[in-house]
Design a protein that fits this description.
Bound molecules: acetamide
Radius of gyration: 27 Å
Keywords: Glycosidase, Hydrolase, Signal
Number of strands: 27
CATH architecture of the largest domain: Alpha-Beta Barrel
Largest sheet: 8 strands, parallel, barrel
InterPro entries: Beta_hexosaminidase_sua/sub, Fn3_assoc_repeat, GH, Glyco_hydro_20_cat, Hex-like_dom2, HEX_bac_N
Number of helices: 18
GO molecular function: beta-N-acetylhexosaminidase activity
EC number: 3.2.1.52
Catalytic activity: Hydrolysis of terminal non-reducing N-acetyl-D-hexosamine residues in N-acetyl-beta-D-hexosaminides
Strand content: 15-25%
Strand order of the largest sheet: 8-9-14-15-16-17-18-19
Shape: globular
CATH topology of the largest domain: TIM Barrel
Number of domains: 3
CATH class of the largest domain: Alpha Beta
Distance between the termini: 46 Å
CATH superfamily of the largest domain: Glycosidases
Length: 620
């Protein structure tokens, strides 16, 4: 009986889904689809009440989006006297469903599209939904220029819905950064964490400290494997790099603000500071003259740590943060705090002497002393600090917000101490990790599959959930040399994260999400956004079973695909051996395992080839 009921339930769900061609990501809080469509034609008007320049600007952008998809530019009116075929934007401060400043209500009938919200942020998000509906309907219904009849009430689960881009390890142009922000906005992200400084490049103009960009923004050019590049050679010119002028940054901030995205700049101290130290060698306790690191091995070899015992370091930081705070309007500045090696502090007589005089017993406490002083500098500039979870070591600065990346634990601990947290555990949110089998993907480290990003809860049990500001995906760029590849690593895992951050937990559903993925790929294509299809590819794992035989297991992230494989160096097709659920016993002496996923007779993913030695390595 239970089985029959659940079958009926499943059947009903898929019928409901088939009728619901919306495939919106992130999934709205409430969506009721009716019959019929609103067709955009030459009689359609766009109604934008006067009085809000922001709303007018949004209305004009809406017209551009509509034109991109339909080729039609709608006449704009301020009000309407008679019923007409229109798309109407409405700011309604008393709207109480949703009574949320980022929420919106979108009502589409055959004769009218009405989008209302309390604030322009809500209108903006409603427009992103509208924009998706238009692109999706084009694909799904072969009815260009039309929108499904639908009632949507929607608002976000989390206040902080972030993505981070590391522009230090590789430099990304101002225009690329803008595009990245535009892409984020489509999926209702609202924080862009800009990792502006690190050992491999200082990327923000600081007018009072010109060497930061004259020297710190440039390194010798290298390609190959990060961490194994040759160090700079004598007299070799540092020609790779770049930086953003303050004018560039103002432009990017204005661009992000129009898209309801707050930019949080990160100046990573006291570790990860080799580029700054290359520019101003007095900043480290060692005082050596270094070049900006090009991606060669240097950890605990070159001193990339600021000297917390030297007042000149705090004067330097005051200058940096004066200019950073004046540029960025947001309330937070990220001060890094991660992975600061204690090695050079331990070696330095000056630092050790300072610790004795101050009664500081451990290097962790010294780091805490440093972060607290940075917090004081920023507090004077009316900014709050965020630091990576290492700032817990030695004691948190009084008002710091913690960004938890080494799992959830740091964030949980910070929340227990009453601090705000943003969860960004590497296991679920690091966008620089492999998204599929390493044999098929560009070289990196560790693995984050699409499903793992999707099935993650950024609000852990046992803490005061009001302290959880939200979550974030992080793209470190050691192995990301181009903008196209940055997009490839970001999408579709950030589609998953957008739903994790925006949609109510009860609306998150991996089966539904998978069905929305391919329609969304078309939306990404239309928006010229690069993305990975690794979720459809086969991933091989291996181990030694109880009889010490080498066995391989094959899987895809996407459900419902069939996997075929060979062990004889031929390419598999649907007449090859089909992988069931039992691991394959790998015969001795084979050359390689080949596998591919199929849907019906058509390949669904790429051909995977794993040599025997690689299977043996994975079993270790
Ligand atoms: C980090 O990944 N070092 C924050």
């Amino acid at each position: 009986m239970k089985h029959i009921l659940s079958l009926i339930a499943i059947g009903f769900c898929s019928v409901a889904y088939a009728q619901n061609n919306t495939a919106i990501i992130p999934e709205p809080v409430s969506l009721v689809q009716g019959k019929g469509r609103f067709v955009i034609d030459n009689h359609t008007t766009l109604i934008i009440p006067s009085g809000s320049p922001e709303l007018t600007a949004l209305g004009n952008r809406t017209n551009e989006w509509i034109n991109t998809v339909t080729g039609i530019t709608l006449p704009v009116k301020n009000k309407t006297t008679a019923p007409e075929h229109s798309i109407r934007l409405l700011l309604n401060p008393t709207l109480n469903n949703p009574g949320n400043d980022e929420g919106y209500e979108l009502s589409i009938t055959e004769s009218e599209v009405k989008l209302q919200a309390r604030k322009t942020a809500g209108i903006f998000y409603g427009l992103q939904t509208l924009r998706q509906l238009l692109s999706l309907s084009d694909e799904a219904n072969k009815q260009p220029r039309s929108l499904p009849v639908v009632e949507i009430v929607d608002y976000p689960r989390l206040k902080w819905r972030g993505l981070m881009l590391d522009v230090s390890r590789h430099f990304f142009s101002k225009d690329f950064v803008k595009k990245y922000i535009d892409d984020m906005a489509r999926y209702k992200f609202n924080v862009f964490h800009w990792h502006l400084t690190d050992d491999q490049g200082w990327r923000i103009e600081i007018k009072s400290l010109p060497r930061l960009t004259e020297v710190g923004a440039w390194r010798v050019p290298r390609t190959g494997g990060w961490w194994s590049y040759d160090p700079p050679q004598r007299n070799e010119k540092a020609t790779y790099g770049g930086y953003y002028t303050q004018q560039d940054i103002k432009e990017v901030i204005a661009y992000a603000t129009e898209r309801h995205i707050t930019i949080v700049p990160e100046i990573d101290v006291p570790g990860h500071s080799l580029a700054a130290i290359a520019a101003y060698p007095y900043l480290s306790a060692t005082g050596y003259i270094y070049s900006v690191n090009p991606g060669s091995k240097f950890y605990n070899i070159d001193d990339n740590t600021l000297n917390p015992a030297d007042e000149r370091v705090y004067t330097f930081l005051d200058k940096v943060f004066t200019e950073v705070a004046a540029l960025f309007p947001g309330e937070y500045i990220h001060i890094g705090g991660d992975e600061a090696t204690k090695y050079f502090w331990q070696q330095s007589a000056v630092v050790q002497d300072f610790m004795k005089k101050q009664g500081i017993k451990t290097e962790h406490e010294l780091q805490s002393y440093f972060i607290k002083r940075v917090e004081k500098i920023l507090k004077k500039k009316k900014k709050k600090i965020i630091g990576w979870n290492e700032i817990l070591e030695g004691g948190l600065a009084p008002e710091a917000t913690v960004m938890s990346w080494q799992g959830m634990q740091g964030g949980i601990e910070a929340a227990k101490q009453g601090h705000q947290v943003i969860f960004t555990p590497s296991s679920n949110t690091y966008l620089d990790l492999y998204q599929g089998d390493p044999q098929l993907e560009p070289s990196t480290y560790d693995m984050l599959r699409l499903k793992t990003a999707y099935q993650w809860n950024p609000i852990p049990a046992g803490i005061d959930s009001t302290l959880v500001l939200g979550g974030q995906g992080n793209l470190w760029s050691e192995a990301v040399p181009t903008g196209r590849h940055a997009e490839y690593m970001t999408w579709p895992r950030s589609l998953a994260l957008s739903e994790v951050f925006w949609s109510p937990r009860a609306k998150q559903n991996w089966a539904n999400f998978q069905k929305k993925l391919e329609p969304q790929f078309k939306v990404l294509d239309a928006a010229h956004i690069n993305y990975a299809t690794a979720a459809f590819d086969v991933l091989a794992t291996s181990k030694l079973d109880e009889q010490k035989q080498l066995v391989a297991s094959l899987s895809t992230d996407i459900d419902g695909l069939e996997i075929y494989y060979t062990l004889d160096n031929t390419n598999p097709d649907t007449s090859s051996a089909r992988y069931g659920s039992t691991p394959i016993v790998i015969p001795k002496g084979i050359y390689q395992l080949r596998a591919q996923s199929f849907r019906g007779n058509a390949p669904a993913g790429k051909l995977l080839i794993v040599p025997l030695e690689e299977l043996e390595k994975r079993a270790r």
